[in-house]
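Hi team,

Below is the intake form for NYN domain-containing protein from Micrococcus endophyticus. Please confirm the fields before the structure is written into the shared record.

FORM ID: S-0412
PROTEIN: NYN domain-containing protein
ORGANISM: Micrococcus endophyticus
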Amino acid sequence: MSESTTYLLVDGENIDATLGTSILQRRPQPDERPRWNRLLSFMGEHWDQPVKGLFFLAIDGDIPVPFVQALTAIGYKPIMLRGAGKVVDIGIQKTMEALQERDDDVVLVSHDADFAPQLTDLAATPDRRTAIIGFEEFLSHELRRIPDVEFFDLEYGVGSFDTPLRRLRVIDIDEFDPLEFL
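The structure came back. Fields below:
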């Protein structure tokens, strides 16, 4: 098998909204946001192949130049979309459909059920690896039940935060460390 590439498709709005609304219950401070470069490094090491990060953004007015420059500097290709409807979802769905024609591996960074049909098709492709990165407790039921998809928790698996988040989560007994709570 020739060397594949991992495509990391980031639904940044979904992750940011989940972090702000559901976890912090406020707008995240800069030091509370994911360190996006760690996702690229993590997947590159985990699957031992090159990673191309595509970071999808809805642009309604001005381009967030500092953020776009920062994404570019750490190795992402910002995909800035505008138009009617959920343009980020549409852009990611189209990209997933286009990747179906390639032999590359795919990682979705989102919790959104809207991607379930495309991820199901990708995961069913022989010899293709697929994964989801996000917060496990907020992963949609539709994404959770897709067979042959690895899951990596954005905080605990990938280690993309500098400070611990205050999350309520179910802990596997084998991973339980009472010292975290004392």
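SUMMARY LINE: The CA atoms of residues 173 and 179 lie 14 Å apart.

Thanks, M.
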